[in-house]
Each structure stands twice: as structure tokens, then as C-alpha cells.
Amino acid sequence: QVQLVESGGGLVQAGGSLRLSCSASGITSSTYTMSWYRQAPGKERELVAFITDVGGRTDYADSVKGRFTISRDGAKNTVHLQMNSLKPEDTAVYYCNAQRYWGQGTQVTVSS
Asked: Strand ranges (DSSP E) for the chain?
């Protein structure tokens, strides 16, 4: 059974930082392209960042480039999303994705 479990969300002031983690079980996350998505209230789910299985290439939504960094820890079967210089518009539920598998999400709230 595949499980993706996100952690690290919370409430932070604008300008602050959070580090999200996605712990995978039932799959070897390094063999999947792993992604972070987010969904704000009343908005569609959007891709925030991904890291490819081959080569570890990363890419980001324009809105987070230069502020967020995705990385993987193969030994721990975990993917991280380091979020710096957070803005109120980053407030959303953040989801970990491994192609057809999804986590349950973790809430990130940025206060102004």
C-alpha cells in the first residue's frame, strides 16, 4: 500500500520560513517524479514544484521561484519543500504527489 504523508505545515508570519516534508512508503520515491501542489480556498490545485526521477531536475511555478526549493533524501525516502520569504498568498493546503499517488495535505497559513 502506497502512502505519502506530509508534515511541517503551520502558521507563520509573512517573511518567515517553513519546511514541508513528504515521507513515502510503499514506493521508492527516488524512482518517481515527485511534486508539490497547493490549493487555496476557492482556487484550483496548482503545481508548485517538482523534482524528476532521472537526473533530479527541478522546476517551479513562477510565483515561488527564488523562494522555494524542492529536494529529496533518498536514504529516508522523503521529499522536502523549503519555503522562504513566505507571503500571505502562499496560504494553501500543500499536497505531495508521486504521479498517481497523493498525500492528504498539510495546511500552510501565512499571516500578514
From this structure: 3-7, 10-13, 18-25, 34-39, 46-51, 58-60, 68-73, 78-83, 92-98, 101-102, 106-111
